[in-house]
Specification:
heterodimer; A: 288 residues; ABC transporter involved in vitamin B12 uptake, BtuC; 85% helix; B: 251 residues; alpha/beta; Rossmann fold; 2 domains
């Protein structure tokens, strides 16, 4: 496996894939922690699928599908956030509407685009090995924005996510921060589509965070650990993808889920030992 | 004594339904007001209007200098406990420090002095040893104390508590109200409760909220007075400490 790794490093498609994995992992590690802690997994799933509408429009009109997907995803995210507050429609119902609307729009546009839609499978299931230079530049820019935003606003983000009402009573800029964050969620999702695909990208935003949360309950540490876990999971998936010629999205999720199962079993074992030891010590004290 | 809050001809509610009507009340420095009333009578709504979480349909809430804009740090608020996500990955100390949010601006880090102050408060409420725990590891009563620390860490002019005794055990309840009495030297307090008996022991004045508000400028209230305030609450004396039962309320 290591030999294969170094052999592959010689190819530019592979080093591109590595860079894409690295920056996507950082983006998803940070944004995913926000998503998981605020229980925004469902809205994130909605935004992800809605972005397919943007991809369809991109195909049809001949722009870069990722760029039009980003615009479409941000607008969907803001739309869900805004309408659920102002239009008195339940948020989860709205998410369902945007989710299917975006997919439907995407299907229609892909269908009416003359000729065969190349790489469509790549957008749905991820194709890490076809990442371009432009993709990587966009990912790096996003990493700079996301990490900068979280460093500068860390305290505010943490407090607003924890208790919005309380933040409002202290006149904190809750609305603006929420809109900015949900936009960052949307952009992060779209720029991760190349890695895991629309259907599977939610895994990069939830599985590493859930694994990290088994070992720490500190917000900052969850961000750091889940970035690392996402990176190693992506690399492992990348090797599997190359070796067995399967879509990278699926192989990445396979390795992350496997990591989750191992981590969960490990944490059950550790906490079991801890409880036994405490019981043993108490028993010993009692006898003394 | 200075006026710190004045509510004038206020009507408010949710979803186009008016819950509070024609409310008038003035809160002065060092007031200790107990708000009582039946469930659904609008106690929490009143708190939320004061906090700026609900915009009133009519009337106004004005602050210290007659301004309608609520100063960021003048009110400390203890919400009902089930309103926050107890699985959120945040430590006790961070929750307490979040009470300083606006005073400290959005970006700056906390000074050692502020951290010390937060730790002193935790110590005062007997939960210093829990400071590094995540809130998910605490019991309901412990969490309530953490939220009390958050509410008072900025030394607000007004402390508002929504059903603080729901999760506090009887042993701590006395301590809890003693702490409030102590705090009352530094700030005005409004406490919402449907447990009239316990709060009457500590508050200075009582406001009955049942769609309307009746202000009772004393902490001794009789069944007849409650009835005249249209407040369907019953006081049953139970040893030294009066105990209350809510009657079903029909309009």
């Amino acid at each position: 496996m290591t030999e294969l790794f170094f052999e592959l490093l010689g190819y530019s498609f592979f080093s591109n894939a590595l860079l894409a994995s690295l920056f996507t992992s950082i983006n998803c590690g940070i944004i995913g922690t926000y998503i998981v802690s605020r229980r925004l997994v469902f809205i994130s799933g909605g935004i992800t699928h809605a972005s397919f509408g943007g991809i369809g429009i991109g195909y049809f009109a001949g722009f870069n599908p990722i760029a039009s997907a980003a615009v479409f995803a941000v607008l969907s995210a803001l739309g869900i956030e805004f309408l659920s507050k102002k239009a008195d429609v339940r948020e989860d119902s709205l998410i369902g509407i945007f989710w299917s609307f975006g997919m439907a729009l995407g299907i229609i546009f892909v269908f009416i685009t003359p000729g065969y839609a190349p790489n469509l499978m790549g957008y749905l299931f991820g194709s890490l090995l076809t990442v371009t230079h432009t993709d990587i530049v966009m990912m790096i820019a996003l990493t700079a924005i996301v990490s900068g935003f979280f460093i500068v606003f860390y305290k505010v983000i943490l407090f607003i996510s924890f208790d919005q009402e309380y933040a409002i009573t202290h006149n904190a800029p809750v609305q603006i921060i929420n809109y900015l964050l949900i936009s960052l969620v949307a952009v992060t999702i779209v720029l991760s589509i190349k890695v895991a695909g629309i259907i599977l990208v939610i895994s990069l935003l939830t599985i590493p965070q859930t694994i990290a949360n088994l070992f720490t309950r500190d917000y900052k540490k969850i961000m750091i650990y889940s970035s690392l876990i996402a990176f190693f999971g992506t690399i492992a998936g990348l090797m599997l993808s190359y070796n067995y010629n399967i879509p990278s999205g699926a192989s990445i999720i396979m390795s992350l889920v496997l990591a989750f199962i191992i981590a969960k079993l490990f944490s059950i074992l550790v906490s079991g030992i801890r409880v036994k030891r405490q019981l043993y010590l108490q028993n010993k004290n009692y006898q003394l | 004594m200075g006026k710190i809050l004045e509510i004038k001809d206020l009507s408010a509610g949710y979803n186009q339904e008016i819950i509070l009507k024609d409310i008038n009340i003035v809160v002065n420095e060092n007031d200790f007001i107990g708000i009582i009333g039946p469930n659904g009578g609008g106690k929490t709504t009143l708190l939320k209007v004061i906090l700026g979480l609900i915009r009133p349909y009519r009337g106004s809430v004005s602050f210290t200098n007659g301004s309608l804009k609520r100063p960021s740090n003048m009110i400390g608020y203890l919400p009902q406990i089930n309103q926050t996500d107890s699985k959120f990955p945040i430590s006790v100390v961070d929750v307490v420090l979040s009470g300083l949010m606006s005073k400290e601006g959005m970006f700056s880090r906390y000074s050692g002095k502020q951290k010390k102050h937060a730790e002193n408060l935790l110590d005062r409420l007997g939960i210093y040893h829990l400071r590094k725990k995540t809130i998910g590891e605490l019991s309901g009563g412990q969490l309530q104390r953490v939220y009390l620390c958050r509410a008072i860490v900025s030394s607000p002019q007004l402390l508002m508590l929504d059903e603080p005794n729901t999760f506090v055990d009887t042993r701590f309840e006395t301590d809890f109200f003693e702490i409030l009495k102590d705090l009352n030297n530094e700030m005005a307090i409004i406490v919402v409760s449907h447990d009239v008996g316990t709060i009457c022991w500590y508050v200075k004045t009582i406001a009955c909220v049942n769609r309307n508000l009746h202000y009772h400028p004393s902490n001794i209230i009789t069944q007849e007075q409650l009835a005249s305030y249209n407040c369907p609450i019953q006081i049953i004396t139970h040893g030294d400490i009066p105990h209350t039962v809510l009657e079903t309320h029909r309009h």
